[in-house]
Design a protein that fits this description.
By secondary structure, this protein is mainly α. The protein is built from eleven helices and four strands, in the order αααααααααβααβββ. 51% of the residues lie in helices and 4% in strands. The strands form two sheets. Strands 1-4 form a two-stranded parallel sheet. A hairpin with a 7-residue loop joins β2 and β3.
């Protein structure tokens, strides 16, 4: 979900803003040829330099790439043999190293795949400490706005309710607005997707959708093991932003619902802070 900075010179599209967003629907915007390229790139990565299938690479790719594939609505099939044993060992390494950010990332991936883990109270405490919600804590150790909103989204995906106050949202809005004055909207795609997961409504203008789609097209033209993760994460974030409804199942995970009229992004009603922000 990491935001990126890209040279705007080759990507600027002159077009009047419209009230109807072009949006993104994976069923419409990702072709069977795209998926063939994706799975071919993953298969090549699984084989590696030796040309023989690596069970370790296969399981690692299933954990890190297939959550995006599932969110995009593609059948991910059964996990590799002994996948859960591998995933638990992988997560256990983050736990032992007290790398709670990586721990949260992997637990969220498992939740999306349909294997939510029940976190201990200590694990919940360590994960939530990443948000630094304690008003008395040292500000120097606080996450920046991008880290905060992305971490909050991952917490929701693993089933940890995160309440963001109106004052905190105002602070986040101000920092994002300031950031958008210095960098184009598409560089904030991951942050806007995270906001949507957190129940925040965003309204994306046509020219921004076109730039995102042009970047995705550039990715697909050169799909290979080295950039398949970038392609999938970009498409995943676009799908989240373009979804009509984002649902977090009770035990964790992420489900998207798309509008029937694929060229229109309808207003999505959220339980709190329903105002729309234009990007």
């Amino acid at each position: 979900m990491n935001p990126e900075r890209i040279n705007i010179k080759d990507l600027t599209i002159e077009q009047p803003e419209s009230q109807e967003g072009l949006s993104f629907n994976p069923d419409r915007d990702l072709s069977e040829e795209d998926w063939e390229k994706v799975f071919s790139a993953i298969e090549r990565d699984n084989k590696g330099m030796t040309g023989g299938k690596s069970k370790l690479s296969e399981k690692k790719n299933y954990l890190e790439l297939y959550p995006s594939i599932k969110i995009l609505g593609k059948d991910i099939g059964l996990p590799p043999e002994s996948f859960m044993y591998f995933a638990e060992k992988f997560i256990d390494g983050s736990r032992k190293n007290e790398n709670w950010r990586k721990f949260l990332q992997h637990v969220s991936e498992l939740a999306i795949l349909g294997y939510p883990l029940e976190l201990s109270e200590k694990e919940k405490e360590n994960v939530l400490s990443l948000l630094d919600l304690d008003e008395d804590s040292d500000a120097r150790n606080s996450p920046n706005t991008q880290e905060f909103i992305i971490t909050a989204a991952l917490c929701r995906i693993v089933g940890l309710p995160v309440e963001i106050s109106k004052e905190k949202w105002e602070e986040i809005d101000k920092e994002i607005d300031n950031g958008l004055e210095k960098s184009p909207p598409y560089s904030w795609l991951a942050v806007l997707a995270a906001q949507k997961v957190c129940g925040r409504q965003v309204d994306i203008q046509d020219y921004t959708w076109q730039i995102w789609k042009k970047l995705l097209h550039s990715d697909r033209e050169h799909l290979a093991p080295y950039n398949v993760k970038v392609f999938l994460e970009r498409a995943r974030n676009m799908a989240i932003v373009g979804a009509e409804k984002v649902t977090i199942p009770e035990k964790g995970g992420l489900q998207l619902t798309f509008p029937h009229e694929s060229d229109v992004v309808p207003e999505v009603k959220t339980p709190s802070l329903p105002e729309k922000r234009n990007f």
